[in-house]
Amino acid sequence: MNIILLGPPGAGKGTQARRLVDERDMTQLSTGDMLREARTSGTEMGRVVAEVMDRGDLVTDEIVIGLIEEKLNGDHGGGFIFDGFPRTLTQADALGELLKRHGTTLDAVIEMKVDDAALVERITARSTCGECGEVYNDITKPQPADGKCANCGASNFKRRADDNADSLKQRLMEYYKKTSPLIGYYYAKGDLKTVDGLGEIEDVAAEIGKALG
Ligand code: AMP
Fold first, then answer.
1. Angle at which helices 31-39 and 61-72 pack, to 10 degrees?
2. pLDDT tens digits along 23-57
3. 3-state secondary structure string, 54-68?
4. Catalytic site residue from 113, 141, 159, 160
């Protein structure tokens, strides 16, 4: 099964993708994670990508489509979860073509709905484990008092450079301008399923489970 998790920054796409990986043996393809890795590479591309991401703008379609194309050549496992991709109509068309070329299709697009006030609160309070990527929130799920990740025991926590009020405002603008048209695009194709992303992690996971069947 191949699915897209679609939603604004902070909707919980990464958290839910990680659960699906554990529960359904699927492969998470997060273009945000791939780009964060690229920016640490010390290459010219990494430097350009870092600047764009820190501003809260979108990286070019060409770069992200290239990253996804590379990964699709790998092992399919239980299928792919596209997390943070596609983000533009050009990327959505390219994904359809790439899947077709690999003899497969998209099974569902899960739209995670969350209101803007909740997004700002979630993102500015967010940190993650530097080892396993477990997500914490200063208010709703603080880092353990012993300073060790509850999932893997590591003690290096990170905050994203673009999780600040200015970048977030720009990331939200980009979402509404360039990514939200994908809701209509996938609705028209009959692939769209909408879940309420505001609830507890478990409740959202249950809703996604129901939507996927
Ligand atoms: P994310 O981790 O998905 O929130 O992505 C972090 C940042 O990476 C975004 O704000 C963009 O600058 C860039 N990015 C991630 N995925 C894409 C994509 N599909 N298209 C363009 N830029 C992307």
1. 110
2. 998 999 999 999 999 998 889 989 999 999 999 99
3. HHCCCCCHHHHHHHH
4. 159
Is 126 noted as a catalytic residue in this protein? yes
Of 18, 36, 122, 171, the catalytic one is: 171
**Residue 189's CB: how many other CB atoms inside 10 A?**
12
Contacts of 37-46 with C-beta under 8 Å, sequence gap 24+, read 38/67
Name the token pair of 205.
Answer: 């996971």
Whole-structure pTM value: 0.90
What's the per-residue H, E or C state across 9-76? CCCCHHHHHHHHHHHHCCEEEEHHHHHHHHHCCCCHHHHHHHHHHHHCCCCCHHHHHHHHHHHHCCCC
Take residue 59 and report the two structure tokens written for it.
Answer: 């990286």
At 171 the three-state DSSP class reads helix
Half-sphere exposure at residue 136, Cβ-oriented, CA atoms within 13 angstroms? 20
Sheet holding 192-196, edge to edge: 27-30, 80-83, 3-6, 108-113, 192-196
Question: For this structure, is 47 an active site residue?
Answer: no
Query: Is there a catalytic annotation at residue 193?
Result: no
